[in-house]
């Protein structure tokens, strides 16, 4: 007999089933609530709402735990690589050596984009934000790949998934090259995924380009950290778009658009700009005071999280990676890192942040490393989108393959005007 919760609605006693997952909080299944009571639940921002069942990622916000298909993020980030994480996301298990080699081979051979995509870029101003370009170009992929937009065909879904994972780095590098007026660099099949991306970003036709292994390893780890994160805003956007039957390229474009916001993936760009604005450690106290001032809209970007009420485990790994990269590059006193470390130390001891359980999140340190590698701040969220595409695709596929899936269609609490008669314009005051 499954557990139920009973709620009283007026004189009505309504039993609602309780569902239990593998780990984490139980949920009250309110699917029949409206039918039984004529009422809806009300939860703007979905702070207490589970939108789906999923087997992909688990977060324990209080304990600061993140698992990809059950594996702790710390172990995957330390021992795995990003394409292995993509395989794990898509298929649910770590690949055998043969499966990994086959997956790498298949993804690598989808890295080129249709050459007419180049013409898209000519339509943009050089100073277009690369996220605007990514939203446009990823959505436009569905104009080229008609053979992988039938979502009812599992073979087409897999091809679309591989194409999305494979082509994001190529489009991201093209967006960067276009912004700096340099020619596009084509992918090379003899490079691993992340080295290929670095070469497409930083190589020029005039000389041979050798990928810095420090950058390649650090960026691959950064991609792993950003791969998926349960039902965050952009993933929920992808799921909602996909629930209407929209093609996967359009759904991922919707996810990119949502991720761009400074409250979400855009925070890595905003966090670095904030560190630059603070400038020196002795300015930190002033900005912490601004962040605490209810009348000041300023927030510490890269701090706080809807789920983590403890240190974001990804931020810990990110901080370690930042220190490793800067010291391997011989960068001793990076002023931005000094400000970040000081800011973290002050904030974590401050009553306001302790009481509101505000800790650094993944976006707090990532920008320092990316800037040290040579990426402009405008590319930070593009890199986040590049990595998150594998999570979006895995969550989209899980939703499509769920037999109970139906179009997402929330209701509302209407607080507008009651019914009233139309007044012809000649009779209005
Ligand atoms: C990502 O959901 C995910 O998983 C997202 C993500 C992923 O991998 O997909 O982890 C990626 O988006 C990380 C978050 C990046 N955003 C930022 O770093 C922007 C700065 N942080 C926030 O604006 C905020 O913390 C959110 C948006 C991240 C979370 O906001 P919530 O959960 O809606 O919490 P809230 O805005 O209601 O804040 C609770 C309180 C408020 O004070 P009170 O109204 O209760 O008095 O904490 C305060 C807020 O004012 N607060 C902050 C703060 N964040 C929250 N005060 C100062 N600085 C901050 N950064």
UniProtKB/TrEMBL annotation:
Keyword Kinase listed? The answer is no
According to UniProt, the name of this protein is Citrate synthase
Source organism of this protein record: Methylobacterium bullatum
Which molecular function terms from Gene Ontology are attached?
citrate synthase activity
| A GO cellular component annotation in the UniProt record | cytoplasm
Q: Which domain of life is it from?
A: Bacteria
Q: Which Gene3D superfamilies match?
A: 2.20.28.60, Citrate Synthase, domain 1 (1.10.580.10), Cytochrome P450-Terp, domain 2 (1.10.230.10)
Q: Which family does it belong to?
A: Belongs to the citrate synthase family.
Q: Tell me which UniProt keywords the record has, alphabetically.
A: Acyltransferase, Plasmid, Transferase, Tricarboxylic acid cycle
**Catalytic-site annotation from UniProt:** 305, 363
* InterPro entries xref list: Citrate_synth-like_lrg_a-sub, Citrate_synth-like_sm_a-sub, Citrate_synthase, Citrate_synthase_AS, Citrate_synthase_bac-typ, Citrate_synthase_sf, Citrate_synthase_typ-I
Which reaction is this enzyme known to catalyze? oxaloacetate + acetyl-CoA + H2O = citrate + CoA + H(+)
Q: Please name the pathway.
A: Carbohydrate metabolism; tricarboxylic acid cycle; isocitrate from oxaloacetate: step 1/2
